[in-house]
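seq:
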Amino acid sequence: DRFELESGMVIPVSGQTQAPQDSSIAVSLRPHDIVLSRDTKEIGSVTPSGHHCFPGVVRECFYFGDSLDYVISIGDNCELRVIKPPGDRLQPNEAISVQIHPDKCIVVQQ
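struct:
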């Protein structure tokens, strides 16, 4: 299944929930389950592991010792919180690939 956000971006979700056509939903996704990559050539494709790749921009990054907490914008009105282990730190305003697996997206009807 796939759901379209207000911005027009289509998010894939696993088929565990059927929402009525044109209904409002929320999609729950754990911050630890989102993959970030500087390799933007994958945007618009599906990786061999099944992740769908979207364009994103790093808005903020906070260091918490054992993790980096990012705010990533995808589309016009959608922001994601992403938590990653410290390492190769992404910079604010950096264009990236955001990779989401449909099995990690849980539909919540409103």
